[in-house]
């Protein structure tokens, strides 16, 4: 019993070998997959069959055989196509089986077109996100098609949306997408849906949220990292602001507090780096002692990221400071610009 010639193209379903009466199975090709996966032929038994066999020759000369002992009526099975090699391929061959009550083996001819392609990758960095002007730039590993962006606020609700259509820009080109949102609202998360020019899609969640906590800086004694009791009120006020922000947003995201220490230019660079680290550690430890339970990281930037640029050996109070920044616990430290040029190691305060 022999079926008619079949042409199965990407994602076309419902083809049948032979007449409706003669065909014991139907099938559907899932032929467009990412690297790491094999195209699949989904076989569904119209009636019970045994010794189901798929014999295929690929256009590069390789031969593939896949077998299944039996398939009950209405039962389905997924048979892999090829070996997952990247690129387009054409397979020609047969699908055959034994049908109960039929003297001859049923067989149908197949021609399958498949595509195994590299997954689409999206990359971005904090330097290419302009929250003030509501513009995100990202790179795509494939020629670009379209993108849709949903922006979510600190209360977990949508702030706004944006969309963009591209002109098949080459991979690794910076692509821009803008969005609209209410004035004064703070972005917590961004959901980006990207479609490459060839139709491959991906979804990415970005967490650009961070909050610089305004506070009054602690005055330390010269060459000391000890917190004077008279300065504790400043830390308590800063902690109250941190706690307020955490209560407002912790149900939407796990957070980390970053304490970055700085000095002026009096003294050697190495000495100032150590002094700023010790002072940042002292502040972080104070917050932990006062009951702040979220993860805390601290680092010393010494005199390398001044608030006010000065000559060497200049006593400048504005540069003797610490930054308190809240950011996502699972993301890199939310510092950019001159901070990225300084090799400062972030240390983690032990959890409570």
Structure, explained:
Helices cover about 10% and strands about 40% of the residues. It contains 2 helices and 22 strands. It has helices spanning about 230-250, 270-290; strands at about 15, 25-30, 30-35, 40-45, 50-60, 65-70, 75-80, 85-100, 105-115, 120-125, 130, 135-140, 145-155, 160-165, 175-180, 185-195, 200-205, 210, 255-260, 295-300, 320-330, 345-350. The strands form 5 sheets. Strands 3-9-8-5-6 form a 5-stranded mixed β-sheet, with no helix packed on it. Strands 18-21-19-20-22 form a 5-stranded mixed β-sheet. Strands 1-2-4-7 form a 4-stranded antiparallel β-sheet, with no helix packed on it. Strand 19, helix 2 and strand 20 form a beta-alpha-beta unit. The longest helix is centred in the C-terminal third of the chain and has 21 residues, at about 270-290. It is elongated, with a radius of gyration of 31 Å.
Q: How would you name the CATH homologous superfamily of the largest domain?
A: OmpA-like domain
Q: Describe the sheet with the most strands.
A: 5 strands, mixed
CATH class of the largest domain: Alpha Beta
Q: How large, in whole angstroms, is the Cα Rg? A: 31 Å
How would you classify the helix and strand content by structural class?
mainly beta
CATH architecture of the largest domain: 2-Layer Sandwich
Task: Trace the largest sheet across and list its strands.
Answer: 3-9-8-5-6
Distance between the termini: 75 Å
Tally of discrete structural domains: 3
Q: How much of the polypeptide forms β-strand, as a percent range?
A: 35-45%
Query: Poorly predicted ranges (pLDDT <50, ≥5 residues)?
Result: 1-21
SSE succession = EEEEEEEEEEEEEEEEEEHEHEEE
CATH topology name of the largest domain, in short, is 60s Ribosomal Protein L30, Chain: A
Shape: elongated
- Averaging pLDDT over every residue, what do you get? 90
Relative helix content: 10-25%
User: How many helix segments?
Assistant: 2
E-strand count? 22
């Amino acid at each position: 019993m022999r079926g008619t010639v079949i042409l199965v193209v990407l994602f076309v379903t419902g083809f049948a070998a032979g007449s409706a009466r003669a065909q014991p199975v139907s099938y559907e090709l899932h032929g467009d997959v990412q690297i790491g996966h094999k195209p699949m032929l989904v076989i569904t038994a119209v009636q019970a069959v045994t010794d189901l066999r798929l014999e295929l020759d690929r256009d590069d000369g390789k031969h593939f055989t896949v077998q299944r002992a039996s398939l009950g009526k209405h039962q389905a099975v997924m048979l892999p196509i090829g070996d997952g090699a990247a690129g387009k391929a054409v397979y020609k061959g047969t699908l055959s089986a034994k049908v109960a009550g039929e003297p001859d083996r049923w067989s149908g001819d197949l021609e399958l077109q498949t595509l195994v392609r590299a997954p689409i990758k999206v990359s971005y960095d904090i330097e290419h996100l302009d929250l003030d002007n509501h513009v995100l730039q990202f790179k795509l590993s494939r020629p670009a098609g379209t993108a849709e962006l949903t922006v979510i606020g600190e209360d977990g609700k949508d702030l706004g949306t944006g969309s963009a259509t591209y002109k098949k820009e080459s991979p690794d080109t910076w692509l821009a997408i803008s969005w609209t949102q209410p004035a004064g609202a703070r972005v917590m998360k961004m959901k980006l849906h990207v479609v490459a020019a060839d139709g491959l899609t991906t979804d990415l969640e970005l967490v650009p949220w961070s909050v610089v906590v305004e506070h009054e800086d602690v005055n330390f004694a010269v060459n000391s990292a000890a917190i004077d009791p008279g300065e504790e009120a400043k830390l308590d006020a800063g902690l109250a602001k941190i706690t307020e922000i955490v209560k407002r947003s912790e149900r939407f995201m796990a957070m980390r507090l970053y304490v970055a220490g700085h000095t002026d230019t009096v003294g050697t660079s190495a000495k100032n780096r150590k002094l700023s680290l010790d002072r940042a550690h002292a502040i972080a430890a104070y917050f932990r002692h006062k009951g702040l339970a979220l993860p805390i990281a601290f680092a010393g930037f010494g005199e390398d990221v001044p608030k006010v640029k000065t000559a060497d050996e200049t006593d400048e109070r504005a540069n003797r400071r610490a930054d308190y920044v809240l950011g996502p616990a699972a993301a890199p430290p939310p510092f950019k610009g001159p901070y990225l040029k300084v090799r400062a190691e972030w240390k983690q305060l032990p959890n409570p």
